[in-house]
Amino acid sequence: MSEFRLPSLGADMDAGTLLQWLVQPGDTVHKGQVIAVVDTAKAAIDIEIWQDGTVQTLQVQPGEKVPVGTVLATLRAPGEAAGAAPPPQAAQLAPVPPATARAPSAASAPSAVSGAAGGATQGPSPPPQPTFAAGPPPLPAHPAAPSGLRLRVSPAARRQAEALGLDLHGVAGSGPGGAITLTDVARAAASALASASPAGPAASATVPVAEPTPGTPATDRQTEIRRAIASAMSRSKREIPHYYLLETIPMARAQQWLAQANAGRPITARLLMAALQLKAVALALKRYPELNGFFIDGQFQPASAAHIGLAISLRQGGLIAPALHNVDQLPLDALMPALADLVQRTRAGSLRRTEMVDASITVTNLGDQGVESVLGVIHPPQVALVGFGRITQRPWVDAAGGLCVMPVVTASLAADHRVSDGHRGGLFLAELREQLQHPEEL
Amino acid sequence: MTKTTYREALRAAHREALLADPRVFIMGEDVGRYGGSYAVTMGLLAEFGEARVRDTPLSELGFVGAGVGAALGGLRPIVEIMTVNFSLLALDPIVNTAAALRHMSGGQFSVPLVVRMATGAGRQLAAQHSHSLENWYAHIPGIRVLAPATVADARGMLAPALADPDPVVLFEHAQLYNLEEDLPDDGHCDITHAAVRRAGTQLSLITYGGSLPKTMQAAELLAHEGIDVEVIDLRVLRPLDTATLCASVRKTHRAVVVDEGWKSGSLAAEVMARIMEECFYDLDAPVARVCSEEVPMPYAKHLEDAALPQAPKIVAAVKAVLNV
User: Does any CB of chain A come closer than 8 Å to the CB of residue B287?
Assistant: First the structure.
């Protein structure tokens, strides 16, 4: 017998509302199967199970809001008899991924696919605060969420820190029982400001705290998304020493190749330039792995594959940057439908857990908005963001020294100077340019 | 502005009420010939006669019930009960009849009754005359519960209580009768709002009735140490003026409730719950309270003192919340 617990879907998630069970007691389930839909502050997320077995009991009813780590269901291992009592160590089998420091992505936007892409910022991922992701009422033998790790923070201080995007770890508490108070937050914010770059966010310790305004769920969701974006972007600009590079890439070959490739396709199977650009980024990353990964606890951790976060704007405002997995390995004919599907599901609020946490770099495409270039804000703990502007006609000197009209796009790289340097970043953009000169190889 | 006592202020209010409206009369144990257990009605029998100031037998059930009947019949009775402990004998006419009739009759009847009673400890009257049971009444829908804690409120609350078409229970803390304060000439007094008795920034001390002077004293002691607290006097125990409480807590981010009742199921508990409901995210520390020890009130002076909220206990609670 094992327990299936509510996993953390990002460092800013401390609870979720069960919307729907997709299985019943007695059902056989397989690793990777979506068995429930859970509503977080950001979206309704399909929750996968990570082992085979038979559902014994469902412990949480649809509509219930429960903390991360709560047992949602119990599961019999294949072959295990029904009615067996859960062993005391059952929790060790629980498929609870540790609250990951990687946060659900939400970033600037690539979406040639779907029109409106988001702003030049990245999205929700607050400072990695186990505080928020820490466990529910003490669950014995659940090492992932030891209650002792929960910071003692007063409600007012917690709200203020969240508004300021301040990570309270390491902040000394002066309140009763060592709790962190408003005064401590103000002090920490002041010192964070003092050490932040001049270009940092204008977060002020004296920002008045807004009253909580009860509203419709939709309003709440928007508020939550906006808060998450604020938190992640403030953290990014506070912590990440960005450097920015721009490269003008001729797109004539890519456009011609795309026109030919689409000529023989039905409308539904047509490729978009965004897919080519994504694939080109993924391939270029192979030679520059220091742009693809995470900066956690003072160290760079390279990602194993190119899981590209696509900044997708939401109709009601805000944006999310869910991961498109293994872009480097997908042929364009598989990449295109995967891209369309991801955009559609993001806007429908139906993302999978892994899509919320796996993105190792973000690509934003503001071309649809008509701008020529975008300088993005890196989505922590990622270390780079690639931006594409509008494809535009420009006078161009060709290889033979003649003047011609060339469609060009400005590609940009915002990268974390703690992990990479401008030289390598420049080589990456050059590689990206080369990749787009050989569209047939993408 | 004239200096007067809480007792004299109450007497003046009663005299004014008797003069203003011929339907008003006072009844209770020893209110006439003896002049009232706490001498509030001293001299009124001689001035207004036995029909308006009536001594009753020792039967709270009987005379409070008679008061309900008189109110239903068109009079404006003021019924005095010697202490809140004794009022338990009259819970039936107050809770089952006076508080309920407007609702049970679909608005056809109202009970414009005022019940006054002494409450609280501090005079070595032990466990049958000293308890603070205001919360029992504050629990009941259909009645308004007042706790005048200043001379101005003692003078001003009776008239609007009599004007209220529904039953009003008015608690006079026995230790307040000798309180002497300036009485403002402006007689206006509402019976709906809590009052800020001292403005401050670091913490809200919330109290009512007999604990107000101790709380003000504690605030003064704290001020000498550089700690600036606000003092809120609930004044109206039902319906609670949650807005004033929460406005204060939103400003100071901390609160300590001082209540002479016992902690369990207390008014302090209700105030804390409302703070939690309304302004949880404004709190910078857990809300604390200073209540009476959970024992029947002792007779011995040192034990009685130890059982009650006192200024040093309030100071200590404030410092614990501020962690100073």
Answer: no
Disruptive mutation site among A160, A162, A182 for chain B (greatest number of B CBs within 10 Å): A182
What ranges make up the beta strands (E) of B177-253? 180-183, 195-198, 203-207, 229-233, 236-238
Burial class (CB in 10 A: 0-12, 13-18, 19+), A326: middle
Beta-bridge mates of residue A394: A406
CATH class of B195-322: alpha beta
Percent of chain B with pLDDT over 70: 100
Q: Which of B249, B256, B281 to mutate to test the interface with A (most CBs of A within 10 A)?
A: B281
Nearest CA in chain A to B320: A176
Question: Hey, are the CB atoms on A176 and B283 less than 8 Å from each other?
Answer: no
Structural domain boundaries in chain B = 2-183, 195-322
Q: Which residues sit opposite A362 in a β-bridge?
A: A309, A385
B323/A209 Cβ within 8 A: no
A225 and A246 fall within a common domain = no
Question: At the fourth CATH level, which superfamily is domain B2-183?
Answer: Thiamin diphosphate (ThDP)-binding fold, Pyr/PP domains (3.40.50.970)
Verify whether residue B16 is a known catalytic residue: no
Q: Which one from B60, B80, B172, B304 is the annotated catalytic residue?
A: B60
B129 is catalytic: yes
Measure Cα distances from B194 to B217, B231, B237 in Å.
19, 11, 9
**Sign of the CA dihedral running A257, A259, A265, A266:** positive
A88: three-class secondary structure by DSSP: coil
pLDDT band at A83 (very low <50, low <70, confident <90, very high): low
* Contact between A159 and B281 using a beta-carbon 8 Å cutoff: yes
pLDDT at position A11: 54
How far is B67 from B77, CA to CA, in rounded Å?
6
Residue A160 contacts B where some CB pair is shorter than 8 Å: no
Q: What is the pLDDT, as a whole number, of residue A12?
A: 62
- In A240-317, alpha helices (H): 252-263, 273-287
Whether B253 and A159 lie within 8 Å, measured CB to CB: no
Instruction: Please give the residue of chain A at the shortest CA–CA distance from B286.
Output: A154
Tell me the average pLDDT across A335-352: 85
Q: Which of A78, A93, A108 is the last residue of a domain?
A: A93
In a shared domain, residues A299 and A369: yes
**Active-site residue, from B8, B29, B80, B129:** B129
CB of B277 within 8 Å of any CB in chain A? no
Closest CA to B215 of B202, B226, B230: B230
The residue of B284, B321, B322, B324 whose CB has the most chain A CBs within 10 angstroms, and thus the best one to mutate to test that interface, is: B284
Q: Do A176 and B285 touch (CB under 8 A)?
A: yes
Contact A11, A125 (CB under 8 A): yes
ipTM score for this prediction: 0.76
Query: pTM of the full predicted structure?
Result: 0.53
Q: Give the percent of chain B with pLDDT over 90.
A: 98
> How far is Cα A434 from Cα B277, in angstroms, rounded to an integer?
61
- What the block records as the tokens of B216 is 């003000």
Query: For residue B313, what is the DSSP state?
Result: H
- The band of A96, judged by pLDDT with boundaries at 50, 70 and 90, is very low
| CB count in 10 Å sphere of residue A268 | 8
Map tokens 């906006």 to a residue: A226
